[in-house]
Amino acid sequence: MTLFSEHAVIDVDTHITEPPDLWTSRVAGKWHDLVPHIERVKDRDFWFINGKRGLAPGAVSMAGYNGRPPNEFPATYQDISASAYDAKARLVHMDEQGIYAQVIYPNVGGFGSQNFLTMKDKELKLACVKAYNDFLIEWTSASPERLLAVCALPFWDIAESVAEISRCAALGHRSVLFPSQPQDFKQPDLSDTYWDPVWECAQSFDLPISFHIGGQAALGVKEGEFSPRGGPMGRKAKFARYSALAFIGNGLGISELICGGVCHRFPTLKFVSVESGAGWIPTLLEALDWQWHNAGVVFEHPEYDLLPSEYFRRQIYACFWFERDMLARAAQLYPDNLMYETDFPHPTSMSPGPATIAVAPREYARQAFADMPGDLIGKLLHDTAARVYHVQ
After folding, report:
1. Are 47 and 108 in contact (CB under 8 A)?
2. Residue 331: CA atoms inside 13 Å, Cβ hemisphere, count?
3. What pLDDT, in 10s, does the model give residues 293-318?
4. Per the domain annotation, does 130 fall within a domain?
5. Is the dihedral of CA 281, 186, 39, 140 positive or negative?
6. What is the mean pLDDT of residues 139-157?
7. 319: which strand partners?
8. Fewest 10 Å CB contacts: which of 52, 172, 268, 378?
């Protein structure tokens, strides 16, 4: 008997490796040179958006790949595991891993949908967002209770964003993807009341807002790319630094939601910090609580009726997938706010292979949860995620 057989495990952060024809088959032909599409360059597949080369699908589909340098990631779609892009194969993979449900995030459009901004035509950008959202509903229809769709958003247009949330709620999406720092993309600050129509709409449908790491201007990552280039530091060292600091990037969003009054104005709206880890959360919240009193926030904003840690407990969630030493303390302090993920099929996912120290999800759970009480383990693996994403 394992923990994964005792609980219907919900994996709250996985990704879809978008099929090559996602946009060319759904967006008007007049734009086919501009929409995201695959071109082969030196025997490798790459996405091109608005005529510019972007990420390689293999770079975000490392799970199950046993290649060695110089082919450090799958070169073409033929080299990628079908479970990365095929829904039926994904379900088989989930069964093998003992995972009941997965929340699905994108790659090509960016982890905050910011890559669509590389296209200048307003109508085209919206068409691409809608095409992705429609595709994802079709993809998850293989098992809608196990494959949980997160809708992309045309956040650069507030009216269209509200309309798309309403449309996607009707289609069956379970969450709304949003950049944690929209100001990085020449939009109003996250805490600006400009965004209140988006929060109000999402709250009305009880759809959580997902802030995936990378939904801000990334350190050393150029527009349309997945990971930073090398330079004097070296590509791998730079990627390690970028990956770790991306967690703190989401801390900017969390602190802004709280200090900017978003949580106060929308008390039933849920926010999820995705792929950001959880061990640093207690430190951030202890600091915010102390500074809240020390700076006199209660005098400046007497309407704020909770401390930062209390706003977090009420409506903000964080996700973890490899942490051990710091996880226990975070789970002890915030047992109802943490959720488990695998990041499948990304290079940092819980997918063992020659290029990673990751262990299989079942083995990770056995090691990381060894000294935790059963009711807490149930919350981390299933209960909290089931409540947030309405899983029966």
Report:
1. yes
2. 25
3. 999 999 999 999 999 999 999 999 99
4. yes
5. positive
6. 98
7. 339
8. 268
The mean pLDDT of 132-151, rounded to a whole number, is: 98
Residue carrying structure tokens 């083995």:
363
CB 278 within 8 A of CB 250: no
Q: Which amino acid is at 286?
A: E
Q: Under DSSP, is residue 108 helix (H, G, I), strand (E, B) or coil?
A: coil
* Structural domain span for residue 256: 3-14+88-389
DSSP codes, 142-210? TSTTTEEEEE---TT-HHHHHHHHHHHHHHT--EEE--S-GGGGTS--TTSGGGHHHHHHHHHTTPPEE
pLDDT in tens, 41-89: 999 999 999 999 999 999 999 997 876 544 578 999 999 999 999 999 9
* CATH code for the domain of 282: 3.20.20.140
pTM above 0.85, yes or no: yes
Residue 87's nearest CA partner among 144, 49, 28, 125 is: 144
Confirm whether 199 is domain-assigned: yes
What the block records as the tokens of 14 is: 């996985």
The helix or strand, by DSSP H or E, that contains position 339, with its residue range, turns out to be: strand 338-340
CA angle 213, 219, 224 (to 5 degrees): 75
Neighbours of 313 (CB within 10 A): 16
Asked if residue 42 is part of any domain, the answer here is no
Backbone φ, ψ for residue 369 (5° rounding) = -105, 15
CA–CA distance, 175 with 154 (Å, rounded to integer): 14
Residue with tokens 């430190």: 283
pLDDT tens sequence across 192-218? 999 999 999 999 999 999 999 998 875
Two tokens at 13? 């952060």
Indicate the pairing of strand 9-15 with strand 99-105: parallel
Counted domains in the chain: 1
